[in-house]
Amino acid sequence: MKASQFGHFLIYGRPDREAPAQLAPAQRDLRIDLVRGLALLIIFINHMPGHLLAGYTPHNFGFSDAADAFVLLAGVSATLAYGGVIERKGLRAGWMKILARLRTLYVAHIAVFLLVCGIVATAVTRTQNPLYIEAINIQPLFADLKQGLLGALSLSYQPYFLDILPLYIVLLAVLPVLYLGVRISPALTLAASALLWQGAGPLGLNLPNAGSSGWFFNPFAWQFLFCLGVVIGRMAQLGLSAPRLRGLDLLAAGFIVFALVVKTASGNPLGVAALDDWIFQVQLGGDKTNLAVSRVLHVMALAWLIIRIVPQGARILARPMLRPLSAMGRHSLEIFCVGTVLSITGQIVLAETGYALGPQLLVAALGAMILAGLGIFLTWYQSFTRRAPAGPAPASGVSALQS
Q1: 10 Å Cβ neighbour count for 130?
Q2: Which member of 29, 148, 185, 316 has the lowest number of beta carbons within 10 Å of its beta carbon?
Q3: What is the pLDDT of residues 111-158, one digit of tens each?
Q4: What would the mean pLDDT of 342-369 be, rounded to a whole number?
Q5: What's the rounded Cα separation, in Å, for the pair 288 and 279?
Q6: Which of 63, 60, 59, 66 is CA-nearest to residue 40?
Q7: What's the rounded Cα separation, in Å, for the pair 387 and 398?
Q8: Is residue 71 within a helix (H) or strand (E), and if so which, with residue range?
Q9: What does the buried/exposed string (b/e) look like for 297-319 if buried means 16 or more CB atoms within 10 Å of the residue's CB?
Q10: SS3 letters for 303-358?
């Protein structure tokens, strides 16, 4: 796509100011599945603080981490999944599909919440170690069961490591507004989203969370990254490719190298005293709650280079060794839920074994195998249930149900 067409898209929501926007034929982008599967695997490892492998995950080598990539991809995939429904059947039909998905996400979150609480309660009973309650932040539930359950049901109480799904629920709920805005003008929608993002911290905008000053992932800030994903998804929906801008390619690559140098350095590698505080902050991870600018720039640079270097349909995406990751990314909700339960269980196992090397590697290997196996099974099962049945049609004349 030419730079001029890209400019027209940002302003008017289509590559040609005069011609109406036409949807491209729907096809699955394996890049989304692959990167999302990798992000889920990294989240599983990072949700076990103190694990040896957590020291080698991407957040140690750049300003962003798997959560940033996950939210950005959530915006892309949500647009591809529901944008077409809105275009073909109208906003009401699209909203009904989104409501059905929101119900599924909500039930999944409550189920994981109850299961994690049960695992922690069992661990405390067996080990007589009440610190596990504090490690997961479920003391509000045990202190006041009624209020704790009400808080969990209203999403106003989120234990540690169980805060990504509530964020996605809120972001998906506002997808119709973002999608309609991007259809009219991606640039204006991004500008409004950026104003909300940058105002969230100074104005104290956040949703309530028991025992905390607010949600760990502030939805008023993280909606900007989701909005960026909606814009990218809209481009894919229209069949638009990224413009060839060598200068931007070099800028993105340079920023990634800069982030690597800063994150892996001891102290200030630039020697500029005015940057001491900022470098100290980004080396600690930056402001994750309110989505630091450094995190957004880093994940945008990574996304840009992936889009430019790995085209959709590249042969490398279909290699057998990458299929388990793609399968995990294709079934992200199931993998995330199971991964969360496994990581909480892993925390307890590692603590009880004194973080010995053997148990650490065993927990990571078993967890990765379970998640990959689940992704492969769900992909097989999905393809199996979607096959057209052989043989004559049913006597009643009613066609066979398809998922």
Answers
A1: 11
A2: 316
A3: 999 999 999 999 999 999 888 998 888 888 888 889 989 999 999 999
A4: 96
A5: 15
A6: 66
A7: 17
A8: helix 66-89
A9: bbbbbbbbbebbeeeeeeeebee
A10: HHHHHHHCCCCCHHHHCHHHHHHHHHHHCHHHHHHHHHHHHHHHHHHHHHCCCCHH
